[in-house]
Amino acid sequence: MNSDEEKTWRSIQRKEQEAFDNFYRTNYKYFFLAAFNYLKDAGLAEEVVNDVFVRLWENAHTIGIESSLKAYIYRAVINRSLDALDKHQRRRRRQEAFSRLPEATVELKEMEACELKVRLYKAIDELPEQCRKVFRMSRFEELKQQEIADRLGISIKTVKNHITHALKQLNKVVTDWNSLPLWIMVVSNFFGL
Question: Rg of the Cα trace of the chain?
């Protein structure tokens, strides 16, 4: 990291808003174009870049940057863009698969999926409080395990144990439901896989 970048990074870590804003304004277009190159969607590219910058601001004190600040953010933007692209492609494939099924089958599958989803939500609500909180932060808020651990003041191992416990409980619901193909479809949709 050159001395200017290092100075900017230290300022951001100290939560100096002006340094952060200047860096954002100076480099936004570069990161936006990088995201747009993958996503081909201006709104989504803007969302990705802003999300990366928000996370950088929120987690600056825990981030260790070895190379350059700009290279670090560029890699984060590309990774986030690829994640967004992957989610979009999976959603499109599911929609295409449903569109090929006869209409009555689609309605039946949708009803079964809704029933299973209700059972899964009920099972989540029945989890112990801390386990439920960790699982929701992981699956619904899409937080990383370290972020959950930091927010709740617990270890990553405890976070992993809670998620494992929750998944075992949800697996029992699915096993009782006795519908593997539907399980694969619903869970992939339910958990954004």
Answer: 21
CATH number of 106's domain? 1.10.10.10
- Which structural domain, as residue segments, surrounds residue 108? 102-190
In the numeric block, which tokens belong to residue 67?
Answer: 């190379």
Q: 100-114, pLDDT tens digit by residue?
A: 655 545 555 666 667
Last residue of a domain, one of 29, 61, 87: 87
* % of the chain exceeding 90 in pLDDT: 31
**In 40-102, which ranges are continuous DSSP H helix?**
42-59, 69-100
* Inside any domain, residue 70: yes
- Regarding whether 173 and 110 lie in a shared domain, the answer is yes
Distance CA(113)–CA(90), nearest Å, equals 17
Helices 129-139 and 145-152, axial angle in degrees (round to 10):
140
Percentages helix, strand, coil for the chain (3-state, rounded to 5) are 85, 0, 15
